[in-house]
Design brief:
It is a single chain. With 483 residues, the chain is an alpha+beta fold. It contains 14 helices and 19 strands. Strands 6, 7, 8, 9, 10, 11, 12, 13, 14, 15, 17, 18 and 19 form a 13-stranded antiparallel sheet that branches. The protein has a two-stranded antiparallel sheet with strand order 1-16. The chain starts with 10 loop residues before the first strand and ends in a 12-residue tail after the last helix.
Length: 483
């Protein structure tokens, strides 16, 4: 892929990972717990000194694992997750098989989607049908909007900067509206969509056109299935209808309130066009074709009679680093760390480039309200200063990386004081192969795409493949949204 020079005005920075380490890589909780254990061991040793030969090595090993890192997380968290996954696999909790029950019984979507239900409503502003996903456990509702993004690589610098400012305004609206709990933007790239292109060309072809033109078009259509891709972007917004001064009472009022809140988000000027609100058939198609890619190009009529539970997999196995489901095997990766340097606005372009395998890229957001954002940044500044000061007291000077981290924390606080929003966000990517034999090639293609971003670090979603897969679908689950 050819590179393009990005003006300095279109570089983006101020990414920073929350760091709770307080001493030697230990979090504040780890330091307090370690001090409590050592104190208890000291008290016991006053009566039984020989116990120190057992308790001290165990405590040291535990604190060492808590301080050590594995794939960007603490070693304790990694091994605890692996132990929990193995235990779940041993009792069969990582395998799903759909059962057929007589009417009126029905099953839900598996895993994190079990509490969701699909509601078919009518948009009061347009009169068109719209699909709303309700979380029966929390009462939150998710509305999905189908998008049609325009290219910006050839756009003038001023146009791109205007789009970035418009998106900042959208985030500002999210931060000041307590009903909006989170949002996610997903782009799905499905290769080999030439068949649909051929049908479209055939419908548009002029019977009276020259034979040479017809021959050329037929040749292009014949060769396009291996060179084209279908791009389907959407944005899902999770809303709590009851978080208002006058909470709606019945379900119809809750749906109307959720649609009203989402209508308040103005995406005009953000570099994308709104096609329409996703209806119930659109949501069934997205979810069902994610689990079974073979039905991606099926007709709308094939999805109209599906129940919400039938949109899920017939069978699925949640492995440690992969997720086997109807018609495919998927691998999902999550963000480990963003570059500490400024990156171009087009940094995700390699991930969005079509490949041999279906891919979904999701940015999940939770915009913090101004008071919460200020409190978070103050804590981060204090922790950064504490780490730097502790290292300076023990080793004579702070590490340069710690000094730079202090500057980044202070810069983020200064930007927030100037009106910028503090956003919790993460990046998730899923690649789907049609068979286990193609899985190594899909992993390699995904690894190359991540490496081509030149700085974004990602890792497999260890033990949470099914949940990460579901978080990229419009089923009302956002890992950043608090219950």
């Amino acid at each position: 892929m050819s590179s393009h020079e990005v003006p300095q005005a279109l570089m983006v920075d101020a990414f920073r990972t929350r760091n709770s380490a307080a001493l030697g890589g230990l979090s504040r909780t780890g330091v307090v717990l370690g001090a409590a254990l050592l104190t208890a061991e000291g008290l016991i040793a006053t009566q039984q000194p020989l116990t120190l030969f057992v308790t001290l090595p165990v405590t040291a090993a535990g604190l060492g694992l808590a301080a050590a890192k594995r794939h960007g997380m603490s070693a304790v968290s990694y091994y605890w997750a692996k132990l929990a996954w193995r235990r779940a696999a041993r009792v069969g909790a990582t395998s799903y098989r759909r059962l057929f029950l007589p009417h009126p019984y029905a099953l839900d979507l598996p895993g994190v989607g079990a509490s969701s239900t699909l509601i078919r409503a009518s948009d009061p502003t347009t009169g068109r049908p719209v699909g709303v996903v309700q979380d029966r456990a929390t009462g939150n509702m998710t509305v999905t909007t189908l998008l049609a993004p325009g290219g910006s690589l050839m756009a003038p610098t001023g146009t791109v900067r205007s789009s970035l400012r418009s998106w900042s305004s959208v985030l500002d609206t999210m931060s000041t509206n307590e009903q909006i709990k989170g949002a996610s933007v997903t782009i799905q790239i499905t290769p080999g969509a030439g068949e649909a292109l051929g049908d479209d060309v055939k419908a548009r072809q002029d019977p009276g056109s020259p034979q040479l033109a017809k021959k050329l078009v037929r040749e292009l259509v014949r060769t396009t299935p291996h060179a084209t891709a279908s791009v389907a972007p959407w944005m899902s917004v999770t809303v709590d209808p009851s978080a208002s001064a006058d909470p709606p009472v019945d379900l119809a009022e809750q749906v109307a309130e959720a649609l009203r809140v989402v209508d308040g988000l103005d995406l005009s000027g953000t570099g994308t066009d709104i096609q329409r609100r996703a209806n119930d058939v659109d949501l069934r198609r997205i979810v069902r074709s994610a689990y079974d890619p073979d039905v991606f190009t099926a007709r709308d009529a094939d999805f109209q009679e599906l129940s919400w539970g039938e949109c899920g997999p017939q069978a699925a196995d949640d492995e440690w680093t992969e997720y086997a489901h109807d018609g495919g095997v998927s691998v999902s990766w999550v963000l480990r760390e963003m570059p500490r340097r400024p990156v171009p606005y087009s940094v995700l372009l390699p991930l969005l480039a079509p490949g041999r395998y279906q891919r979904r890229i999701t940015l999940a957001y939770r915009v913090l309200d101004p008071l919460e954002g200020e409190a978070v940044l103050e804590r981060e500044i204090n922790r950064a200063h504490d780490r730097s000061r502790t290292t300076a007291e023990t080793k004579g000077r702070a590490k340069y990386s710690q000094q730079a981290d202090v500057l980044r924390a202070e810069k983020a606080a200064a930007q927030a004081a100037g009106g910028a929003q503090v956003v919790d966000w993460t990046l998730m990517v899923t690649a789907t192969a049609r068979s286990v034999d193609d899985l190594p090639a899909a992993r390699q293609e995904l690894n190359r795409a991540v490496a081509a971003t030149r700085g974004i670090r990602m890792r497999p979603a260890y033990g949470t493949q099914a949940a990460t897969f579901a978080a990229q679908l419009p089923i009302g689950y956002n890992p950043l949204v608090k219950d």
